[in-house]
Specification:
By secondary structure, this protein is an alpha/beta fold. The chain has a single domain (2-99), classed as MTH938-like (Hypothetical Protein Mth938, Chain: A), CATH 3.40.1230.10. Helices cover 24% and strands 24% of the residues. It has 3 helices and 7 strands, in the order ββββαβαβαβ. The chain has helices spanning 37-40, 61-68, 78-90; strands at residues 2-3, 6-7, 12-14, 19-21, 46-50, 72-76, 95-99. The strands form 2 sheets. Strands 4-3-7-5-6 form a 5-stranded mixed sheet. A two-stranded antiparallel ribbon has the order 1-2. β5 (46-50), α2 and β6 form a beta-alpha-beta unit. The longest helix is centred in the C-terminal third of the chain and has 13 residues, at 78-90. The protein is globular.
Length: 103
Amino acid sequence: MRVGEQWIHSHLIISAQNLLTDWNVSDPNSLTLADLELAIAFEPELIILGTGNSVCIPNLDLMAEAANQGIGLEIMDTPAACRTYNVLVHENRAVVAALFLTL
């Protein structure tokens, strides 16, 4: 995955001000709120979760748990998540993308 001029070869979390590479997760299907703590620390209004080449819906409680913290959670494949993230950052929205690398 390319971020600016940098090629990233691991799962990552990105905001307008931060890039965290080597996000230590293994599978979008087993994702928990604890796995998103690094993204939540940036205090976004929305987290866009890119689940790889295809959409994988993680534990359904995850969306409710994020909502309880006042954070929206949108789940899509990683290419769509990247496009959506770029649009929202351009609109100066408080958004974070948590992206599983596509293969």
